[in-house]
Prior knowledge:
Layout: H1 6-16, H2 19-24, E1 28-29, H3 36-40, H4 47-50, E2 52-55, H5 72-77, E3 82-85, H6 88-92, H7 97-109, E4 113-118, H8 122-126, H9 130-143, E5 152-155, H10 169-185, E6 192-195, H11 203-207, E7 214-216, H12 224-232
Parallel strand pairs: 1-2, 2-3, 3-4, 4-5, 5-6, 6-7
Helix pairs in contact: 1-12, 7-9, 9-10
Amino acid sequence: MNYVDLKKFNEDFEGLISKNKKNDISIIISPPFTQSNFTSKGIYKGLLNDCELAAQDVSEYKEGAYTGQVSASLLNKNGYAFGLVGHSEVRAAGNNNLNIQKKGYRLSENNIRPILCIGENLKILQEKRKESFLIEQLQSFFLENANYVSPLIAYEPIWAIGTGVAADQKNISESFNIINDFLIENHLDIPILYGGSVSSKNTEEILSIDYVSGLLVGNASLDGKEFARIAEKF
């Protein structure tokens, strides 16, 4: 829930990113709903005209008297290709695994690709319950409904989000192996992203870890120059 001067962001990004790099990677941006009209209509050339659009959240309901919520059908009509579900901050506000599963289904009904966010908090990590916790989040989403439209998974350890300290390679690798094993066992071929204090300084290290297909960038994405530096590392 941050305002970004999209024109300046785009100028900063375009000033650093190489043309070849932009052609080699997929960029998805997830602005607040109030700024999505600028991006979906491609008012600015360059990044904001070339990237795909993701919603930060979606209602679990189709339509109706749900003031303040945004339905998947409305997202579809406004050019959204992706939608985050289960972000740690949304979970902290009260969403449970069932709410998140319903949201993923609503997105897929409207041909929008869900990005399932999963991750453990510090207490779960310290109690060595990470594996069972992650498996529960995955099972509740994928085993209840196998008809999602080309979903993605974003692993974001809650204890690393917004702290400026990304999880170490050992922790990330362990988590990605847990997720990948689940996908193999259930015959699912789904890209896995990493999120949690991502910056241009740790991007290469994170991308070197097995099964990491991309990044879910938080605070660093508010700065067009830093976002370009991260993109150049791919």
